[in-house]
Amino acid sequence: MAPIKKTTKSTHLADQESTGMEVPAELREGIELPVQAEPAPEGKPAKRAPRAKAAKNDDEKKANRKVERIKEKNNVQEVSAEKQADTAPVETAKAEKEPAAVPAEISAVPAAETAPATDSAQNADGQQAETQATADPSAAQDGTSENASADGQQRPQQKERFNKYDKKNKFNKFDKNNRNNNNNNRPQQQEEQEDTVPMPDPDSEAWCKARDCWAKYRKMTMSDLQELASQKENLDFRRYRKQSLGLLLQSLENENNIVYAEGLLEVTPQGHGFLRNTEFNYQQGPDDVYVSQNLIRRFGLKVGDTVAGLARPPRDGDKFYALRRVDKVNFDDPEKIKRRVAFEYLTPIHPNEKINLEWDQDELTTRVMDLFSPIGKGQRSIILAPPRTGKTILLQNMTRAIAANHPECIIMVLLIDERPEEVTEMREIVGKLVEKNPALKAEVVASTFDEPPDHHARVATMVLEKAKRLVEQQKDVVVLLDSITRFARANNVVIPHSGKILSGGVDAMAMQFPKKFFGAARKIADKLGDFQKDTNGQMIYTSAGEPVREVIQKNGSLTIIGTALIETGSRMDEVIFEEFKGTGNMELVLDRRLAEKRTWPAIDIFKSGTRKEDRLLSLYEQNILWSVRQSMQNDTENGIMDKLIKWMKQYKSNADLLEFLRKAKDSVR
Question: For residue 332, what is the DSSP state?
């Protein structure tokens, strides 16, 4: 078999075999086609090569460009050398900022015009050219075309345009017409100019006068303030609230419109804050004083700090009085709070300093408590009280006793879900105590039963934060809470539903915040030094057998005395009581049977007691009280209390009563 001859197809245009058609004679000379054609380029077509850029460092071209710009602005034919020298720095700075505009301007200048301008620039040393009077002098001095238009009118500055835009921008958070922002939480506009009004130094005569004026107007009623404001000329007092009217009258009375402001700081999520007023139970209001972020950051202020300082009236566009200077924080120098330790890092210990509740010889309830269930600084006390057993009267008497015997303590009475008349009565009692002793710091914060549950929780939160800040400043704080049960009920409604329901309809997470509040009570360990010794070199011991050490720094304490309702017939109240049972280190139980017989105080001395009472009572007192309990075990509750009442009426003080009981104990032996 003959081999197959491999042939290739011709690609000549004149070849009939390759084209399949007859080719004219004039094309038979044809063109050779490539065997494999190159692929077409993909994408966009290539741009033309850019023009060559002129050198930026060419001094001659730079000088020509300056001259041409000046001629165009001023509409002149020639430019003097002095004018070129004045505009040289400005033009050079602009050329450095806008390097991309240099080639375009150079290329736009014709070559024919460049040469004469160069000659005029070179010969400017010997000749002075005259400029036309129609030129704008301000534009010539600036040396830029941004500040002057072609007709010689001055354009607005760029900074002013942007400031105006910021004020009118509908997305601006400072715009008062923006409805997306809460008016109380919206920060006021930043002040461009500083206050030039002089302010007095803290604790100076003018400063103390402003503080006394603030305290005077704070105690006055709304009708008294309106009557005083009616005596002022051109003052429409009808549209002002009580706090705003007091601040306005204070600014009119003091020199240089000095306004003293004091309140509890609440920091918003935006970073600024407001000073809440105690009279309005720390709730938001249009009369609150604005605190800027700069002051909060400068002094390290926290939520719950009691801030006092000088404020100024609202300016144009502002809605609140603004705090100008911080003079006092938690009743101390603001510099001290920079070294304070957070409440969570303080070391709690057992109470070892007793609070004396014996203040009146005729007040038997607190005298019985002082013996059988003593309270120390930092105590976590719970009073278990059935309805109508006198727990409210007991809290009032305890407030009087603490104010009389321990004026260094800061008293805070927190009433939650209480009757309005009881709130008024408690405020009158505390007000009289403050009038009797102006150095005493006591207040009443209340949320009545007609308020919503979230109002109860908010009030409790603010009181707790304030107490923590005071303890961080080595203060002794006493909080009297009435009542824990109603506080837990309100928190059960406020918290999000967790899906875990306990007996009585109590949510599993409803007790967390009330426990946090009640568990904040503690005595902070003092900073101790070396052990103390007597004159013979022997170590000194306490009644509990512990060695005594020198106290270098005395820290504060937070004492919480709360009431809990029992025997109400409500399953929820029983669950709340069981949750708090055992969390306190002092319990006082009131007996309903004694209250029904009108025997006061209705205290069950066998069920009442204090943990670690040996740290509060001496060994002498402990032995006598133990013997009294043992001797009265077989008596009825009514008989026990009748004996105690008889003895206390016979002896005017507990010390005399203990001496009588000691002698009776020795005679029995």
Answer: B
Say if 205-339 and 348-617 have the same CATH topology.
no
- Is the full-model pTM beyond 0.90? no
Instruction: Give domain limits for the chain.
Output: 63-142, 205-339, 348-617
Q: How many residues does the chain have?
A: 669
Residues 6+ positions from 469 with CB-CB distance below 8 Å? 302, 304, 305, 306, 330, 343
**Dihedrals phi, psi of 244, to nearest 5 degrees:** -65, -40
Cα atoms in the Cβ-side hemisphere of radius 13 Å centred on 67: 26
For residue range 244-260, what is the model confidence (pLDDT) as tens digits? 777 777 766 766 667 88
**Rounded to an integer, what distance in angstroms lies between the CA atom of residue 477 and that of residue 412?**
8
**Euclidean distance between CA atoms 469 and 301, whole angstroms:** 10
**Which of 565, 628, 585, 587 lies closest to 369 in space, CA to CA?**
587
| 463's tokens | 């009181």
DSSP code string of 180-210: TS-TTTSPPPPPSSPP-S--PPTTSHHHHHH
Q: Is 642 left (phi over 0), alpha (psi -120 to 50) or beta?
A: alpha
Question: Which among 387, 413, 399 is positioned nearest to 485, based on CA atoms?
Answer: 387
Kindly give, in sequence order, each residue whose CB lies less than 8 Å from that of residue 107, ignoring residues fewer than 6 positions away.
51, 54
Give the angle subtended at the CA of 665 by the CAs of 664 and 669, to the nearest 5°.
115
Q: Quick check: 71 and 124 in contact, CB under 8 A?
A: no
The secondary structure element, H or E, covering residue 108 is helix 101-108
What count of other Cβ atoms lies within 10 Å of the Cβ of residue 604? 18
CB atoms within 10 A of CB 325: 14
pLDDT digit string, tens, across residues 484-543? 999 999 999 998 888 888 888 888 888 999 999 999 999 999 888 778 887 787 888 876
Tell me the three state secondary structure of residue 349.
Answer: strand
Q: 96 CB contacts (<8 Å, ≥6 apart)?
A: none
Q: Give the integer Cα–Cα distance in Å for 330 and 351.
A: 24
| Residue position matching structure tokens 């006198």 | 390
Helices (H), ranges, 545-652? 571-580, 592-596, 619-631, 637-650
Architecture of the CATH domain 205-339: Beta Barrel (2.40)
Asked if 10 and 18 count as a contact pair (C-beta separation under 8 A), the reply is yes
Q: Which residues contact 574 (CB under 8 A, 6 or more apart)?
A: 504, 566
Query: What is the C-alpha separation between 60 and 115, in angstroms, rounded?
Result: 10
Q: 324, 284 in Cβ contact below 8 A?
A: no
Quote the tokens at residue 601: 């105080």
Contacts of 462 (CB under 8 A, 6+ apart): 264, 266, 276, 282, 304, 445
Residue type at 252 in one-letter notation: L
| Residue 56 confidence (pLDDT) | 52
3-state helix, strand, coil in the chain (%, to 5): 40, 15, 40
Q: Which two tokens stand for residue 18?
A: 């390759």
Q: What is the pLDDT of residues 390-425, one digit of tens each?
A: 899 999 999 999 999 999 999 999 999 999 999 999
Class (C level, CATH) for 348-617:
alpha beta
Measured over the CA atoms of residue 484, residue 490, residue 491 and residue 492, the dihedral's sign is positive
